[in-house]
Protein 1
Amino acid sequence: MSELEAALDRVRQDPTPESLAKAWEPICVALDGISEAALDSAIASVDEVTAGIWLPYRRVMHHWWSRIEQGKREPRIAAARSLSLRDIRESTIEFLTHAPELLHIERLGLMDAPYDAPFKPKYMRPFTTSPWVRNLRYLSVGLPLGDSGLGHLCRSTHLAGVETLVVYAGNFKSRAGRALAKRKAFLRLRELQLYRCHIGKAGIEELVAGDWSALELLTLEECGLNAEALAILAATEFPQLTQLRLNGNDIGAALGDALASAPWIAQLESVAMESLRLDMPSAKRLFKTLESSPLTHLDLSLNGELADFTPLLKSPVLSRLTSLRLSYCDLQDDAVQALTRLDLPHLEHLSLGGSNAWSSQTVDALVASPLLTQLKHITVPRSLDEEARERIDKALTRAGAYLV
């Protein structure tokens, strides 16, 4: 079996977005060296599952595009429901705009622009009027859209059915919040995820003026939020919100007090608060606030001030969790040992990774802990020596779990 066939076979066995992402590089490497005749033969093996990873490769896309221009139908493209494109150029958008075969695409990802052909926001305008985009339910864009590019998306009634919108590094200025609030697109939006978009307080003020009655998941990661922006967010009605991610914002001590007054706090099932500069007093207020919520997932990673986590171990919040992430909080030995003695009946995923070293007593406590019999996954510090990792791994293997 060739490297190309092996990569495609792995995707067929596990057709998840993660599997598709891992397959991208080996498939590109395998395709780089083959002839046009071999490429034509290889493309003939594409099916509904693998079409979404073939199209991102520019050489394959151009091959298909030339056939479409010749009036030849491509049923393999027509069968695809998920498509992830990289190296986005003007020709890529032109292909998307005019391709008649993309009738069933429901999930679309557009990631990365080449250095030699900078992306221009105006490229998005014709794409948003393509008839086939009416079928989209998931749209992920990792391009410097700017306010104008986002505006093209938000004004498109063709995109009204999108339920999940993900934007990475959108290069927004001052009108992004307003565009999202006054959108004609994304009318059924259930998930809004903004990463490194830096909309700040002004953007939040405009954003919350929109209709977010159907929103269930809100991610504002590294978006330049401060305490004032958080207070505005906390005063907004999100009647369906169950998941909140605020990683990487300069919120710090204001977190617990601001969320305490939020009308949706008792709905939250998943909270991610990585790298917020949380200190222990603000963390205590946060835990107190979350006592009324049905929380099952909590991520407080990269908050180094929480190294002595012991004062938080008495909170009833922990007893409901199925997932707890404390990576790079660099918990002290006493805190880890106390954690291993807790009765956490629902906990399945525990992340304690970091750069700190554990004492042998802490490793002993973890290996002997009843927690290991119920965990499916645990992350431990990278600095642990091989013997300690082997002991933990053996205990986990007996319970059917795995170590990272």
Note: The longest strand covers residues 82-86.
Protein 2
Amino acid sequence: MLKKIVRKVFVFGALYFAWACVDQNSDGLSNQPAAKISVLNGRVKFADQATFFETVKSFDGMDSEHQLKWASSLGHNTLQSAIDRYNIGGEDIPKEYQTYSYYGIAQKLFLNDKGFVQIGDDVILYKEQKKYYMTEAEYGALGDPLDIMKSEKQGDYKITVMANQNDDPNARSWNAPTDGNYGDGGDMHEFQLGDGSWRKFTTVFIAHSDFVGWVGLCTADPANLPPYYLFNNDLQLMLKLEGRVSKKKSWSHAAENRDVAWNINFPGLGLNGYDDCGGNQLEYVNINLAKSGSASTGALADYYVSIVPTFQSTGTGSPYLWSGTVTGTVDHTYPGFSMYELTF
């Protein structure tokens, strides 16, 4: 089962590079002095911690094309290239590379194909969820490079693997008030990145009902009942990606690009409102509505999937609630973490 999941992760990781596209005018690293980033014995060497963190910050703001171009310009064999070899060849992923599939894209391109990088005088091996450190001199004296794992200087690189929040195969009930407030029945998953920060994928039903104008009077008793009006109504599924640097901080829009895909079905949905003489009624009913598609979405942005585009209704007051049942999945392809799937 793990092998199957890992293979799926690698495939979607490869697809990310093929379809991610956000306009960028610069790679953000062109002004970095060449002497501060070099390649030594097949591993990338950053002159110091400040250079490393400045590079990561710039790297995160680049699209995949510029990320790959930058890594290629260094000329080292990246961890990503080692992973891709198995994708292209259709081979099973070796156990030693399985955990690497959950690394961030920066790590996959900064690390060489053996998992090494150098920051200042520290040579660092990333392995599983650990980091092993030695000075350049200590590492150079080793007969076997993997003996770095005997070093007493170690650190953690924490990875959280996605698990679906909801595995109920039956249709889930949901609703969305028409005032723009969040509805019930969506899904959510939190996970932690290797740098200790957190991300949260959320699917939220959201709806609006906008007043258009006066239409007429109730034909049954126009003298005693109020006039009725025309309203434009819509229903959307909002796909959110939020982040925070620690659990003590509040959530805000995450500054990463991502790809989203959805395949959802509504066995039944309807809009509750008022008829032209003030009584309650179902303004809109749809049975077995299906929605599927995919898109790339930029950083700091929510993505909205249109479930019901503008639908016009009349009544003595605004329609007040969409509701129904839903099944299906929403997939997020997040840089370096491949596909995260939320299940209705």
Note: The chain is about 20% helix and 40% strand.
Protein 3
Amino acid sequence: MQQPPQGGYPPQPGPAKSNAGCLKVGLIVLAVLVVFGLLGVGCLAFGANQVVDEFDKQTGVADSSDYELTGPECVNEEFVGPKATGTLKNTSSEAQGFEVSVRFTDADGNLISEDSTFTDSIDVDQTANWEVSTFESADGEIKCEVAEVNYSLFDG
């Protein structure tokens, strides 16, 4: 039998350290970061969708209930060529710019040109004049029609 060393028994190692507490804290922090990340991505997607909706509202084909159009009056000017004029009233609920596209044809219905113009931003219930000219030459009688009205971010 072996004798204990002088001064008593050798020091005993302490209880085994457990990293369970650190692991729990790490998992909780990770879970919180994942939740915040998902919320952030969701908010970003929602915000991007709002921006796209607003951009679509400010560009693209205008809803016919958002404007009243008069014209076009067509003339074939000697130096300028075919020209169309008219007015556009903003009947939407906010100030808005518009793009008016006009198709010019000859007496036989052959396309001469399709051109457009931009209005300045028109306040609600206000009217603006518009004019579209093409420098294409045309002989004889011409016809013109508004091909499309779009919303515009640009002022004329």
Note: The chain is about 25% helix and 40% strand.
